[in-house]
Write a structure and sequence with these properties.
11 helices; five-stranded parallel β-sheet; 2 domains; about 375 residues; single chain; Rossmann fold; eight-stranded mixed β-sheet; alpha/beta; binds iron/sulfur cluster
């Protein structure tokens, strides 16, 4: 039996492509090969890999996971960081992915190889064909060039993504293209923000990983569901520092705390119920024992809270106990606070309109 090794870049490009390939090569064994060290950061790589696993499982196609050789990828694209998409960096990136796929095909004793990159409207099919044919000759393999995206291909591809509830990423993969895209969109590159704690921020890569894990489970259990889009105000802290009497102290800044000028000096106006109200920007400092009371927790210190925070949703609920829904005033948890303390706060935070996906279970 003939074998085809297919380099898979993402399920959006692969699902329909693999369906067509199976129809065109009914006698061949098709093996998926996920080799993409160009996908950054690693969380996004895992997200796309898991999604391709989900798609291949549905199609009954075996999938091999290639090496995430990110150091080699950075090395070969050195000097091409500022190239635009479809430029020389992309040619190097295709070369590497197809080269490693051809070697994998030889290792697996396959006689053909191809790539789902041919399905992407942002990739040059012509360029991919030249690279594929060259590697085919070098390795005594046939490179399968198929244009499944022409005609109604694009529509069929979109339908396959929708009907199978696949993950639709919104950037090609590498950090260079991602940065350039976000800069052009004047949008925060929040894909590169990852917390050292286990808190999952809304619409972060970790959020999507858990969403699609839930999809996989629901699908395995034969549940009916759909994935809906929700517009909302997202928030990220970029940096924060609180000093009391000129000394930096452990502090936990609650979500949606915002300081327009990013820096302020303030004094305590009054303290009530272990809650200090400052004379600037509506800032509120809350002692950890009061925070425990509000959240029904038993943190011994702010350091403990920092390493083991509430979930984002619980944190927002706690904030609502303190301030009204649309307030952006900084609310900060500290170990203790006194009436005559002098406060310095530096806070660089941002809020922005965003769209996230949520799962709605039907039955
Ligand atoms: S933009 Fe895409 S194809 Fe081009 S180098 Fe980056 S990941 Fe590779």
């Amino acid at each position: 039996m003939s074998k085809i090794v297919v380099q898979i870049c993402c399920s959006v490009d692969s699902h329909y492509f693999l369906e067509c390939l199976r129809e065109d090569f009914p006698q061949d064994e098709i093996i998926g090969f996920f080799y993409n060290p160009n996908i950054h950061p690693y969380g996004e790589y895992m997200l796309r890999l898991k999604d391709v696993e989900f798609s291949c499982k549905k199609l009954g196609i075996d999938l091999i996971d290639g090496l995430y050789d990110i150091n080699k990828w950075y090395e070969i694209t050195k000097g091409y960081e500022n190239e635009p998409e479809k430029g020389n960096r992309c040619t190097i990136c295709f070369d590497d992915r197809l080269d490693v796929t051809a070697l994998k095909a030889k290792e697996l004793k396959a006689d053909k190889f191809t790539t789902t990159l041919l399905m992407s409207p942002l990739k040059s099919q012509e360029k991919l064909k030249i690279i594929g044919d060259k590697l085919g000759v070098q390795n005594a393999l046939e490179f399968i060039y198929k244009d499944y995206r022409s005609g109604s291909g694009g529509i069929n591809q979109s339908l396959a993504v929708k009907n199978n509830r696949l993950y639709r990423q919104n950037y090609c993969g590498c950090i260079y293209a991602l940065n350039a895209q976000r800069e052009a969109q004047n949008r925060l590159c929040d894909e590169l923000i990852s917390l050292i704690t286990k808190q999952i921020l809304p619409n972060s890569i970790e959020y999507r990983l858990s969403l699609f894990e839930q999809r996989d489970k629901l699908s395995d259990n034969g549940k009916e569901f759909f994935i809906k889009k929700v517009d909302f105000i997202n928030y990220r802290i970029l940096s924060g520092l609180l000093k009391i009497n000129k000394i930096a102290v452990p502090s936990y800044i609650l979500a949606y705390s915002y300081l327009k000028n990013q820096k302020t000096n303030a004094k305590v106006e009054f303290i009530k119920n272990s809650t200090a109200y400052l004379n600037k920007n509506g800032i509120i400092l809350i002692a950890i024992e009061k925070f425990n009371e509000l959240t029904n927790r038993s943190y011994k210190s702010v350091k403990e809270l920092l390493t083991n925070p509430l979930s984002f949703e619980e944190e927002v609920r706690a904030r609502r106990e303190i301030l009204e829904d649309f307030s952006l005033s900084p609310v900060i948890i500290v170990d203790s606070i006194k009436q005559d303390d002098a406060i310095e706060l530096a806070l660089n935070a941002t809020y922005f309109s965003d769209t996230k996906e949520e799962i709605e279970i039907i039955s």
